[in-house]
What we know:
Layout: E1 11-13, H1 14-20, H2 25-33, E2 41-42, E3 48-51, H3 55-66, H4 71-79, H5 83-119, E4 131-135, E5 138-144, H6 151-167, E6 176-180, E7 195-200, E8 210-213, E9 216-224, H7 230-242, E10 245-247, E11 251-257, E12 270-279
Antiparallel strand pairs: 1-3, 2-3, 4-9, 5-7, 5-8, 6-7, 6-11, 9-12, 10-12, 11-12
Amino acid sequence: MEVEPIMADEIVTISEMAKLHHLTRQTLIYYDHIGLLKPVSINEHGYRYYSVYQIPVLREICLLKKLGMKLEDIKKSFENRSPDTVMKLLKLQKDSVDNQIQELNKTRMHLEQRIKFYENLHEEHTIHTPLIKEIGPRKILFVPFPCEPCKNILHLTLMRAWNQLFDWGTVPSSGFGTLIRCSQFDSEDLYRGAGIFVVVPDQEYNFPGIEEIPEGIFACMYKYSFPYYKDDFLSLKEWTESQGYDITGDALDLCLLDTTFYNSEHEVDYCCLQIPVKKRSS
């Protein structure tokens, strides 16, 4: 059967085709190269011409691309096109978009937590002056120190914790510090069993190493020092006991501003040492 020739008024130049679909000429040349949409003819100067009957095809390509489809998948959909195959492609893309939304919502949550973390720094506190403060419940990932903590050991242990969280698909956006076990408070080996803690979102994760810090009353002390200085802990512990409080759990030395915030005035971390307490019965 003879194919009817395309009339002149049915021919569209590459520039017209591109303008009609808000594309560039380079895009249509690329579509030709990958076999997605080939022109009906190319003249001796290499100029491409399309048929008006290809407009619906390019229109659909543009629609699917606007919906986030990959060109490779769009090309395959035209090789075996039916309502069912297109619907399958659209459902796969919807699933992909749903997953992206879920990940973006998690990222947004971590951004909000990080913003809140820094907003809390606007509270004014007298440095190295103990106070009593109510703090809500928290979940933490705990990773023990391999030996007596120092700056290098702290950073290396912290990276172990961070990498563990990254492997779980989360972000350490709510702070970190040193946890000291209450069983060692009266021991000369204070940091036995101690380690790094990283605060994790309440709604996430029940993995090994996750511990819950219950809400309660804490004896706190804001300080410029590293989150493992023994003298800071002993000072706050002594004050707590002198004020008629009993210690009820592990101590947390939360790092609020780390090395990245050092300046000419302070070249140590800004931390908040926290010891859970209750008022001693009279």
